[in-house]
Structures are given as C-alpha cells and as structure tokens.
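Supplementary Note 3. Input sequence used for the single-chain structure prediction.
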Amino acid sequence: MTDVVDSDELLRRIQRARACALEEERAWRTRSEALRPTDPEGAREATVRTLAFESVLRVLDEILTPGKRAGDH
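The predicted structure, written as discrete structure tokens, is reproduced below.
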C-alpha cells in the first residue's frame, strides 16, 4: 500500500535521503583512506562504494536544484 504525500513531504524525504547519502559517502571515503595502507582490496571496495554514493548525491542534487551542477562531470 502506498501513501499519498504532498510536495513538501516529498521534498523533506529527498533532503533526508541526500543527507544520508552524504554521510555514507563520507564514511566510505574515510574507510577507503584508512584501508589503503593495509588492505588494498578493501580500499578498492570502499572506493567503489564512495563512487556509488557520489552518483546518488548527483542525482538527488539535480532533483533538488536542477541545473546547478550542469558544469560538473
């Protein structure tokens, strides 16, 4: 079953999702840096996860502020 939400609630949910994705991206970046000297394979996995969360952030940013990151690639 789905709930009907208004645009303000949808915006709040997207903002919360963005905050969560930002937190995860930072955590995986920190983990990648910490693992680099001792566990190269673990560091690579953490880097891949960092990139995934960066992609999620780009999508959510485009939803929240269309065109703002148009020059970023």
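The chain has a mean pLDDT of 93. The radius of gyration is 16 Å.
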